[in-house]
Design brief:
single chain, 3 domains, alpha/beta, 3-stranded parallel β-sheet, Alpha/beta knot, 6-stranded parallel β-sheet
Length: 388
Amino acid sequence: MNNLDDKILMIENKIDDVDSKMVELLEKRLKLSGEEALLKKERGMPVPDLVRVRTKTEKLVADAREDMAHYRKLCYMALNELTYDYQRRVTLPESEIYKSVKNALEQGFKSFPEKAVVACQGVQGAYQQKACDKLFSMPKIMYMKNFNGVFAAVDKGLCRYGVLPLENSTAGSVNSVYDLLSKYKCYIVRSVRLKIDHSLLAKKGTKIEDIKEISFLQHPQSMLGVFHLPTNGFKELSMNQLVLALDGVQDPGNLGTIIRVADWFGIKDIYCSHDTADCWNPKVVQATMGSIARVQLHYVDLNKMAESLPADYPIYATLLDGENIYKQELSHHGMIVMGNEGKGISPLLRTKINRKLYIPSYSSDGNTAESLNVAIATSIVCAEFRRR
């Protein structure tokens, strides 16, 4: 360890020492307050002396340094809450109703331990860990990468309990958890409500009054992603990779879905004509569901780009005069061109296509849709390329 590590360890040890002394003093204070409460009860005096508490609070705040006054007040308020609770336990007799409820609670929860090994999805400090701490007094937590990992830990006997979200007030039920409940034959044995608080992350110097809207959704998700806009510019096309080229795809929802499809099928680069929708349009970003962070988009002149490629470089496109995609040989590299929603691929770029494909319809009577949505067509084509 270096000198900085030694200093941190020394400070942490001092904090531990202070904590130990505080706990001892707290126990001593509670016992004294209990004796005080019993004596006051014998004399018929009110147990909490609110006037004395207010006077003492004002003095503690007045005597504190300016930067500590607020914390002194909060600490003393919390201390008095603990004192009142302890005094009530000491002075109030256990009525028959109280005894009955207490007995029912003890009998009902006897099978649910205070100490247990529990699986949670996420990391320390996440909301599932907070929920776990509310359910168990002293849990030993195993952190899993995903929901399935939590169920698998319980199923394999690594732990007896798992804590997972079932629903939230904005998005409703967490369907994936319910699906896993059925798959693993697990059961819900207890639930807890947890208030969720979020903080807004912004650039230094941003004023809250300048922030008008952070989501276009009526019911936004509980998480907000913050990205730096890339400044890496144009990336040369790699000759040994599969890429997408979008010629005039203008619907933000379609572009967002195509980006998400590319991410799913491991396509890292998409080359777009200048009249393709802006990839940073809020609707596009929303439709990508996070894939915008893993797929790079490059806005270029597709005609010039196609002209610069070797004559034998595969340039694919789905056209009405193409060959059945399921019967053609497909390479592991090349460019897949997808066209505009209404006009298709522009005439000049169409002349550069050297591998024409066609997605056949399987309607038995020929009465079928006129065409496929460009995002759906992209999904089918990418799936067939990756299947080979």
